[in-house]
Design brief:
Layout: E1 3-5, E2 11-17, E3 24-28, H1 39-47, E4 51-55, H2 72-86, E5 91-96, H3 98-111, E6 115-121, H4 140-163, H5 178-190, H6 193-205, H7 209-214, E7 218-224, H8 236-242, E8 246-251, H9 258-261, H10 263-275
Parallel strand pairs: 3-4, 3-5, 5-6, 6-7, 7-8
Antiparallel strand pairs: 1-2, 2-4
Helix pairs in contact: 2-3, 4-5, 4-6
Length: 276
């Protein structure tokens, strides 16, 4: 396996496909998944001539199930270690959901000089949870409920979540795709229960406002108004406004998991942005 070891001794797994001379794309996966969630995009962009890279976040997938460091600062630091190890430059970073927060923090803290473009898809910035300065966020009780479901019966939770709101299979007339649900469960169960439990705080309570303000590379913000996991109104328009050089792409009725259910749409829009 391809792995690096970070300064705190954590082993991070990554995939690296394509010519080392091609422009690199780094994909940042959502919670509680793995690099495998990007397989469709990686194959698509590999065929288009890009070098494609995706890692398993610490505690997720094939990376080490360490006890600590399940927060955005460590996530971003792990990405920085991988990027430096591979000596990636003029890199495009694409982050989905929690991975969007990870990508934004990485670029703000470590990667402005190495990064060329950024894409946030259904991403958690600026901040998901309701706070005195973010009264429109989701109540903390929503995230407490996720923690309880995970702690009580993680394997059932990891069936219910993709069967319902993640892919929009709970919408009237929607037809659940069992292989997609099973693949979500597979990826989730590969990871550490503690990493996933701690990660809920990381993706819901981290405030990315200042990160977004300092990012000056061209950024595409993609989000659906029917996203049931990261509500549109509290995320994408606010992120686009905070970013210095952003384009907001809005979908009406796609799910949070649109990279899987509507990969042809997402891939086409991504390619257009990368080529612009």
């Amino acid at each position: 396996m391809s792995t690096i070891t970070t300064k705190d001794g954590t082993e991070i797994y990554y995939k690296d496909w394509g010519s080392k001379d091609a422009q690199p794309i780094v994909f940042h996966h959502g919670w509680p998944l793995s690099a495998d969630d990007w397989d469709t995009q990686m194959l698509y962009f590999l065929e288009k001539g890009y070098r494609v890279i995706a890692h398993d976040r610490r505690g997720h997938g094939r990376s080490a199930q360490v006890s600590d460091g399940h927060d955005m600062d460590h996530y971003a630091g792990d990405v920085a270690a991988m990027v430096e190890h591979l000596d990636l430059r003029t890199t495009i970073h694409i982050g989905h959901s929690t991975g969007g927060g990870e990508a934004a923090r990485y670029i703000a803290r470590h990667g402005n000089e190495r990064a060329a473009k950024l894409v946030l898809i259904g991403a958690v910035p600026p901040i998901m949870a309701s706070t005195p300065t973010n009264p429109g966020g989701l109540p903390i009780e929503v995230f407490d409920g996720l923690r309880k479901s995970l702690a009580d019966n993680r394997t059932q939770f990891y069936v219910d979540f993709p069967s319902g709101p993640f892919y929009g299979f709970n919408r009237p007339g929607a037809k659940p795709i069992q292989s997609v649900i099973q693949n979500w469960w597979r990826q989730g169960m590969m990871g550490s229960a503690k990493a996933h439990y701690d990660g809920i705080k990381a993706f819901s309570e981290t405030n990315f406002t200042e990160d977004l303000r300092v990012i000056d590379i061209s950024t595409l913000v993609m989000h659906s108004k029917d996203d049931q996991i990261v509500p549109f109104a509290g995320s994408a328009p606010l992120s686009a406004k905070l970013l210095k050089n952003s384009t907001l792409k809005v979908y009406e009725d796609l799910s949070h998991g649109m990279c899987t259910t509507h990969a042809n749409v997402v891939n086409s829009d991504l390619l257009a942005f990368l080529k612009a």
